[in-house]
Amino acid sequence: MLNPTGKQPAGTLAVARKVHEACERFEAEWKARPRPRVEDYLGPPDDPDRPALVEELAGLEIELRRAVGESPSHREYLRRFPFHADVLARLFDDPDEPAPEMTHADPGPADGPRPASPSSSAPPTGGERFGKYELISELARGGMGIVYKARDTALNRPVAIKMILAGALATEAERERFRREAALAAKLDHPNVVPIYEVGEQDGFLYFTMRLVEGGTLAGRLDAYREDPPAAAGLIETLARAVQYANDQGFIHCDLKPTNVLIDRDDTPRITDFGLARQASQASDLTTSGAILGTPSYMAPEQASGDRQAIGPATDVHGLGAILYELLSGRPPFRMSTMMETVMQAIYCDPLPPRELRPDVPRELEHICLKCLEKSPADRYPTAAALADELARFLQGDPIDASGPLQKLRRWARREPAVAARLAGLGLISLLTEVNYWFISPEPDASAHFWVQTVLGLWAALTLLFQQLQRRGWESDSIRGAWIVGDMACLTMLLWIMDDLDTPLLIGYPLMVAASGLWFREGVVWFTTGLAIAGYVALYALAGLEWGRGGPGWSQPDALPYANIFIACLALTGYVIARVVKRIKAIGQYYEIRRRG
What we know:
This protein is an alpha+beta fold and 597 residues long. It folds into four domains: 11-89, no CATH class; 129-211, Phosphorylase Kinase, domain 1 (2-Layer Sandwich); 219-412, Transferase(Phosphotransferase), domain 1; 416-596, no CATH class. It contains 20 helices and ten strands. Strands 1-2-3-4-6-5 form a six-stranded antiparallel sheet, with helices on one face. Residues 1-10, 94-120 and 281-291 have low confidence and may be disordered.
């Protein structure tokens, strides 16, 4: 809207610029994969720009999802943004669809205060009295609890109250876990841990009060730290000292992430939310039953796999590393479109190095961050104190000892398994070819040897080329398809050059079909299967022409029946792999639906 002078107000321009920059970052991350979440680009619940951000970012996400054949629904987005129904109504053609029953399975801040409910099991709302406390406003809402800004009328001081979300309907396990959180946090007395004041029960609601930290969460300050890596290192050093204190008291936090770090008005960071914390000295049925507890994007592999025996101080080191990674790169280590894919990434893959996302990140700080995120707890810093000491050395300009060449190679192989597997396989074939040519073959064929090594070199070069194209944000499906075509073409050329029906390289066709299942795309599996069959058939077509090569073994009449069997086996392999992929995706979608309520 224009003011009387015909100019757009400065505030409106600032909001428009903020929204535009957020949309640009969101779309760039969408193309680079993994998919970003709109929620990660929103400010705190009381941010006046939040409705504009929700409207533009959600609209952009809906458009991008529809472009790839998905069908986002009004109901789904109402669950995610229940307090922006008016905004969502403008984005869908069915604005009159009734709002679903709201759930709060996802951790993190909600979009705003929830209206009062007539149900006695519903939590109170801002403005109500809660015992001796006057509730002022809702600060955040997570999977189990809700946090209010309040005033203690007896002591006349501001506090934060956390209460169990389900109220009188909470199960005994939920109530016991809530009591545990309060009991654990109450035992900690550290300047960088939010202190607990009181624990009690009122009107069927378990609650505890704690210091009110009004500066917001670390999640709202990511941009500032991304522009200042040394400040990010200093912050993590401070948090690591606090985590070491908790570990020394026998507690493992198990859910360290930016939304669980509060920043006071004097910029003092304070760790909160000990809902998943466990005592290192004893197992608890509440947190160690083999269930996967935590936030997938920040989980240590031992958490993601449910390996309770491996959870220890190094688990919190991983959490600190995940926070540092997001401070440096602007996104968490892993974030896929579904929870199952994210958990699989956390268990088996390494994140992209921060310098590939932000080249201005100091190399030493990147090494420290990636060492925290090692898959094996034994390869990380053994304690949070060791991490803090390493960060202190970095800040002082002293040498660090984050990782050696072997660890870097292992980390790269986990981060780029497709490239590592191809290069290792091609290198082994090249080595065996050289050994066979120089030491074993009674009549070495210099021409065939030259062409085999040339094709192997071309194959390796194509692998590195496609890897670089994929990293630079080229459309993933197109690159994936071209990569598969290149693999099949190179394998078929090798088989044609070797001119031998009995070569062990024939196993390459079914291996590639099986490996295509790692993309978790049925279409990719069938595409690879079709190319494998086409390549195998092409060998016979070429051999039938003889190309002046004196009738190669491929064209022998008695070989054709075996070819038919081989082709049938390739098709069957593709079918089995595609079915496995379909079932895994179905399981992932089922748990994703359950998680979102």
